[in-house]
């Protein structure tokens, strides 16, 4: 479905039934909930809150989907060595199918192929395949011949280990975020941008007023889903939360003839796919998570904008050349959009979702897997914010685990 035609489908969409939401909504009469962040997580939270009967206002400092969301590969998958986290991701993949059906979001369920010949990466892939085995992910171990059979446009080279996940999907993250926000707006939500948070007034440990560059807004509940900006907002609430970032170069090409619906992951560093509109997307993830002050707007501008179009084009051509080794059609592809993105990664590598310690009516959602987890975290956040019972599946991911010392790590 093209962008021009999606509004008709949104206007006719029905409400999703989520256990706990109806009871939560009846506990209060249209509570006023502020959601900070207009990326895919904030949009999903807004959808589920508005469906539950809340009065919702979304605050976005720039434009919707302009941060980590637009720089994402937007790959929906369950690949991890952590079996509990795997199950959360599988639950969200099922939720994606329901949300896609209801809001006509255009998810491409084309599967994915991951492979590597680097010993440490091969070992990690083997562990992931074991964790995914005998689950709904249904992994298939593949070699170079099988990869080419599954996806004739790909030349994988030497594959020490590889697997195919037939049920993975991907989206246009900007388009899907805008569709979600448009749906929420048709049901009465406000989406305000550009709207920076300048302060938070609290009384007796509860948020009362959110101060912004667009004025002051009284709220009954506040949800922070602001990606790399989350630590600064948590500081305003009196809670220390470390969010590291993984910088990555994201390049969209000009439209190419359709070749594939799959997502490809080479050694967990080079990832690529083809968008529904024909653009190829290539991402290079640069190194381990680092604690960078990307919530500082001056610093953020300095490292997300290239000093010249020529330098940006040079980096894009270099990245496309690396990907063309595996996807030959990219050899002559022309770069179109070139971005530096920052994926927010909590200190231990796992999602953070739940009430903010020390703030009676504040809630935080932060994860590097925002696209994969958006539907399930939106469902649970809405239910819990509106008074529903705590979701048992979220127990390992609560922010109060950071009240003690936490070692840096990764969900793998």
UniProtKB/TrEMBL annotation:
- InterPro entries of this UniProt entry? FAD-dep_OxRdtase (IPR006076), FAD/NAD-bd_sf (IPR036188)
Q: Name one Pfam family in it.
A: DAO
User: What keywords were assigned to this record?
Assistant: Oxidoreductase
Q: For the FAD dependent oxidoreductase domain, which residue ranges apply?
A: 33-383
Q: Which Gene3D superfamilies match?
A: D-Amino Acid Oxidase, subunit A, domain 2, FAD/NAD(P)-binding domain
Q: What is this protein called?
A: FAD-binding oxidoreductase
Give the species: Duganella aceris
């Amino acid at each position: 479905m093209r962008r021009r035609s999606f509004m008709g489908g949104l206007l006719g969409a029905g409400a999703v039934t989520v256990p706990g939401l109806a009871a939560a909504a009846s506990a209060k009469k249209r509570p006023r909930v502020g959601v900070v962040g207009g990326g895919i997580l904030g949009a999903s939270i807004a959808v589920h809150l508005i469906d539950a009967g809340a009065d919702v206002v979304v605050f976005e400092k720039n434009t919707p989907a302009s941060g980590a969301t637009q720089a994402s590969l937007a790959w929906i998958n369950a690949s991890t060595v952590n079996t509990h986290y795997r199950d959360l991701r599988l639950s969200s993949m099922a939720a994606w199918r329901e949300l896609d059906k209801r809001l006509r979001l255009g998810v491409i369920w084309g599967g994915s192929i991951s492979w590597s010949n680097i010993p440490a990466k091969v070992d990690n892939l083997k562990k992931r395949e074991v964790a995914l085995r005998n689950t709904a992910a249904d992994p298939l171990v593949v070699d170079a011949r099988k990869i080419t059979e599954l996806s004739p446009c790909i030349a994988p080279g030497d594959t020490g280990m590889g697997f195919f996940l037939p049920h993975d999907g991907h989206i246009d993250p900007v388009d899907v975020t805008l569709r979600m926000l448009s749906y929420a707006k048709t049901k009465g939500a406000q989406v305000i941008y550009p709207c920076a948070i300048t302060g938070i007034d609290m009384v007796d440990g509860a948020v009362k007023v959110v101060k912004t560059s667009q004025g002051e807004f009284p709220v009954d509940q506040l949800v922070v889903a602001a990606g790399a900006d989350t630590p600064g907002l948590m500081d305003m609430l009196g809670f220390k939360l470390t969010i590291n970032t993984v910088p990555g170069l994201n390049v969209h090409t000009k439209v190419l003839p359709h070749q594939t619906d799959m997502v490809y992951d080479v050694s967990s560093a080079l990832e690529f796919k083809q968008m529904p509109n024909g653009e190829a997307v290539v991402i290079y993830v640069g190194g381990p998570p680092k604690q960078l002050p990307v919530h500082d707007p001056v610093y953020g501008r300095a490292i997300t904008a290239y000093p010249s179009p020529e330098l940006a084009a040079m980096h894009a051509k270099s990245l496309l050349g690396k990907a063309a080794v595996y996807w030959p059609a990219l050899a002559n592809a022309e770069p179109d959009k070139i971005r530096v993105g920052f994926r927010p990664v909590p200190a231990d590598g796992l999602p953070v979702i739940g009430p903010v310690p020390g703030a009676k009516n504040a809630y935080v959602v932060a994860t590097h897997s925002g696209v994969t987890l958006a539907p399930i975290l939106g469902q649970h956040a809405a239910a819990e914010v509106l008074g529903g019972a705590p979701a048992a599946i979220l127990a390992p991911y609560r922010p109060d685990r950071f009240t003690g010392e936490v070692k840096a790590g990764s969900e793998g």
